[in-house]
Amino acid sequence: MALRVTAGVVEEVRPRRPDETATDLSRDGTRALVCPGFLDLQVNGGAGLLTGDCTTPADLSRLAAAHRAGGTLGLLPTLISDSPATTARVIDLVAATRDPAILGLHLEGPHLTIAGAHDPAMLRPLTDADLALYRDAARRLPHLLITLAPEQVTPARIAALAEAGVHVSLGHSGSSYAQATAAYAAGASHATHLFNAMSGLHHREPGMVGAALDHADWIGLIADGHHVHDAALRLAHAARPESLILVTDAMAVAGTDATRFTLAGRQITRAGGRLTLADGTLAGADITMIAAVRHMAEATGAPLAAILPLAFDTPHRMLTGRPNRIEPGAPARLICLHGDRLTATLTAGDWEAA
């Protein structure tokens, strides 16, 4: 196939003619696979910064750039449960950012019940003031995703958020299947990192996991080999392959050689592909998106080409309602792979080695 890009936009896609001169992306006899760049909807940090540390648009761009080497060319910076003042400040910051890699904002909390690595002191119910802030933010941001627990937010308020254009996700919750099902009926559409920090699947009480598999339109999943057992990855893929969205849940150390960082005054240690609190609690993940794609393919036995869309197409369809295709008029934010190796990215008209 031949691909023509002009001014950062796909101009033409067609079969390549034998007599034409063009850049050949094949390498060592291996044909190139080109697809849209990955979209990561849960990125807590990178380049030494957490989202809450960012104070300028340049900070957010630096955070986003730390994920390019893993094939992520668009992301939602994710603010972990924080104060109303910090939340409002980060909303303003993202609204002022014009970097195309910043797709909007993910607020993971503070309206949660299972803390995980979040600061328990920050968790609280959603108030009228919060609702007003989020509805206004949904008008100002390209996309706003909010993770909440059904125990902390009434179905009426979930409906109000959804009607305002907020993508409502359920997570960090010990809710029953019935509670979670009611939240999905009210307008929630997504599940945040399936299996982690949520009530599990039992044959008499399916919990939040069961409700997500039964009712969520979209299901986030961390495929790093630590957060979710490979057997559970296979079960989720067998049950809802068209709805899974791979996320990295990356932290400040992404794109750096740092072995520790601080989260809400607590030290997080990086070792053996894991990020943990002192008590062993997982605190985000230490994986790139291309590595998550590879792990998901290995765990499920599916071809890499069948797993790649979980990193670029399902997140795009969740945010926009449209498939993510390389077609005339689409932004040329692309990646190139040879086998399972990411070898180049395209964002500004030229291929750059990954």
What would your notes on this structure say?
The model has no long low-confidence stretch (mean pLDDT 95). The strands form five sheets. An eight-stranded parallel beta sheet has the order 4-7-8-9-10-11-12-13, with helices on both faces. The chain has a four-stranded antiparallel beta sheet with strand order 3-18-19-20, with no helix packed on it. The protein has a four-stranded antiparallel beta sheet with strand order 14-15-16-17, with no helix packed on it. It is built from eleven helices and 20 strands. The protein has a single domain, classed as TIM Barrel. The chain is of the alpha/beta class and 354 residues long. It is 28% helix and 25% strand. Helix 5 links the parallel strand 10 and strand 11. It starts with a strand and ends with a strand. Helix 2 runs parallel beside helix 3.
Give the helix/strand layout.
Elements: E1 2-6, E2 9-14, E3 33-36, E4 38-43, E5 45-46, E6 49-50, H1 57-65, E7 72-80, H2 84-96, E8 105-108, H3 128-140, E9 144-148, H4 155-163, E10 167-170, H5 177-186, E11 190-191, H6 207-215, E12 218-221, H7 230-239, E13 244-246, E14 260-263, E15 266-271, E16 274-276, E17 282-285, H8 289-300, H9 304-307, H10 309-312, H11 314-320, E18 334-338, E19 341-346, E20 351-353
Parallel strand pairs: 4-7, 7-8, 8-9, 9-10, 10-11, 11-12, 12-13
Antiparallel strand pairs: 1-2, 3-18, 5-6, 14-15, 15-16, 16-17, 18-19, 19-20
Give me a quick take on this structure.
The protein is 28% helix and 25% strand. The chain has 354 residues and is an alpha/beta fold.
